[in-house]
Amino acid sequence: MSGGKSPVPLFKDGKRHDGRGPMDLRPIEMKVGVLNNANGSAWVKFGRTEVIAAAYGPREPPKFMSLPDRALLRCRYHMAPFSTDERKNPAPSRREIELSKVIREALETVVLTHLFPRTVIDVFVEVIQADGGTRTAAITAASLALADAGIPMKDLVAGIAVGKVDGHLVLDIDQIEDNYGEADMPVAGAVNLDKVVLLQLNGSLTPEEFNKAMYMAWEGIKKVYALQKKALEEKLRKEVNL
């Protein structure tokens, strides 16, 4: 969030700047198995935000990285230089390093790493185009890539962000709402486990607003989760019909 005055009205007559209502998600698309050279892969699109994820492993790591009781899960979140309006430096930024850690920790809650001691599982997430909600799109794609790779998990992880714009709580914020809103709350959860695995808040919400935002986020997560399952089922159906 950068604050300041938005170049367009963010909320007017019950509608957001792009015509959506407060609970409306952007158009969402998902595909799995999009990369030939990865064990598992996924492409996820939330509005104009596009993310691709690749998963590799379990495979043997360098000995100094080996853990005796479980697999080492590594994650890299990266924004392509062409993903933003201004060319981004290709070197990893502090934000990208932080989000790599946040995504890894969220995924560790569902991946059954204890089944693969002394191995490593790698997840690479590349933001192709950024228009808000990249971290939640990234964790959604990463979870799908792991599932596509056949990595055993307790559940899928789906993510969505709730924002506060012009005093109103709205679901699945885009870049302009993120830039000029008063709060941004990314949330990710495992629906079948009924568990929140990622929760961050930039800005401030009252206790009442926070409770309402969590309700909105969970309703959005359930919709994203259903689309994840549909994407996996579509790939399986194609494989069965070959």
UniProtKB/TrEMBL annotation:
Main enzyme class: hydrolase
Molecular function in Gene Ontology: 3'-5'-RNA exonuclease activity; RNA binding
Domain Exoribonuclease phosphorolytic: 25-152, 155-217
Keywords attached to this entry: Cytoplasm, Exonuclease, Exosome, Hydrolase, Nuclease
GO cellular component, one term: cytoplasmic exosome (RNase complex)
Biased composition (Basic and acidic residues): 12-22
Domain of life: Archaea
EC numbers for this chain: 3.1.13.-
PANTHER family: EXOSOME COMPLEX COMPONENT, EXOSOME COMPLEX COMPONENT RRP41
Role, per record: Catalytic component of the exosome, which is a complex involved in RNA degradation. Has 3'->5' exoribonuclease activity. Can also synthesize heteropolymeric RNA-tails.
NCBIfam families assigned to the protein according to its UniProt record, in alphabetical order: ECX1 (TIGR02065)
Protein name: Exosome complex component Rrp41
Organism: Ignicoccus pacificus DSM 13166
